[in-house]
Amino acid sequence: MDQKRRISSEYEQELLQVRRKLVVMAERVQKMTLKAVRALVERESELAAEVILDDREVNREEVETDELCMLILARRQPVASDLRFVTIAMKMVTDVERVGDLAVNIAERAISLNGAPPLRPFVDIPRMADLTVEMLNKSVTAFLEQDTVLAEQVIAMDDQVDELYHKVFRDVLEIMHQQPETVRRGIDLQSVAKFLERMADHVTNLAELVIYMVRGKDVRHIGKRD
Amino acid sequence: MDQKRRISSEYEQELLQVRRKLVVMAERVQKMTLKAVRALVERESELAAEVILDDREVNREEVETDELCMLILARRQPVASDLRFVTIAMKMVTDVERVGDLAVNIAERAISLNGAPPLRPFVDIPRMADLTVEMLNKSVTAFLEQDTVLAEQVIAMDDQVDELYHKVFRDVLEIMHQQPETVRRGIDLQSVAKFLERMADHVTNLAELVIYMVRGKDVRHIGKRD
Asked: Using the beta-carbon criterion (under 8 Å), do B180 and A180 form an inter-chain contact?
């Protein structure tokens, strides 16, 4: 292989590595999210403790991915779509890492809630978690396959998560009104729903970044402008 | 001026423009934060409506700053500290923009709370806002003057905001326990405190990014690793 081709192939490998790191991080935070909600529903605080440990990996991967991206920008000086890919990857890791932080927040609330009698059967919270994980899954596929249609589906799904959040919020509020002794637990449950709703917001950011990456057009804030 | 010097001076101007845009955005979200809390304390929903409008400017500025940074990366192919500056600026605008979103969230809760009788005199919430704005102010100075000591002060101040958040949370919980009819308003107030606490987290991210930019060393997650 001649020198030029060798360098180009190394460069391809580096871009591939960024892609792979993002996928690994995204898969990890999906598992953490499901585990944190299982810790709550099945009252298994040990699962929650695992989530808290898993987050160290996510934090490590965020720093590594950023460093790799900077190295590529410095060494390879990419332009056009490669440049967009690398800079957007740096923004994406931030959102993925914050999903991991939110899984930890849920795990912490699960530990607190597991120490008291269960407040109510959980129906909507696991649905929120399933939806959020599905959104994250679709975002990753959209990212890998440069699929803006899929990314737009993710953005649309965020409304379902918001609706479920408001439903949990109202249901729990009603219980707290009627049984003031449940206020502490009720607020913890509302927080869990809120954390899932924020996760879905971060995943929506990911989908918007995929669209931006593919089309070179910024769709962020378009909904907000209305 | 010869050709090379002209280009270099244009490049300097572009970097300066990124810097200026970040400062303008940061100042705007500081004002929005104070205005949103005043809307609550002085029960002036018109101020809250202003905050919601101001956020459009912040969103516009985020997109513009990102585009400018991408342009610089593509055209000038910066290396070393300039590269770090540009990529970190792209991360910083995300955090600043989210502080703006949180000011909007506070403004929305203020409008809701202003429609009901006041729950309690506000003492800790304005203190949280003042602290957060002071942190943001110091972060901007640290960024402009490459002052890592100041950035570390910002990181340390985050604990004070966290403490105040937990104080507001407990105080409001107590009121809700004793007067279940206040639960709705209590939760809105706790949310306002939570939004301020999240703002301070974003500002802490900014300070960590300043340290990373200056030292070329990543301090993110160091606290979390313990």
From this structure: yes
- Amino acid identity of residue B28, one-letter, is R
CATH code of B121's domain = 1.20.58.220
Assess: ipTM above 0.90: no
- Look at residue B223 and tell me if it is in a domain: no
Tell if the pTM clears 0.80, that is, is over it: yes
Q: Which residues of B touch A84 (CB under 8 A)?
A: 70
Give domain status of residue B138, yes or no.
yes
- Secondary element (H or E) of residue B218: none
Q: Which of residues 155-194 of B touch A (CB under 8 A)?
A: 173, 176-177, 180-181, 183-184, 187, 190
Q: How many CA atoms lie within 13 A of A204 on its CB side?
A: 20
Cβ–Cβ under 8 Å, residues A169 and A193: yes
Verify whether the Cβ–Cβ distance B184 to A173 is below 8 Å: yes
Q: Which residues of chain B have pLDDT under 70?
A: 1, 121, 217-226
* CA separation for the pair B201, B95 (Å, rounded): 9
Enclosing domain of residue B140: 2-215
Rounded distance between C-alpha atoms, residue B93 and residue A141, angstroms: 27
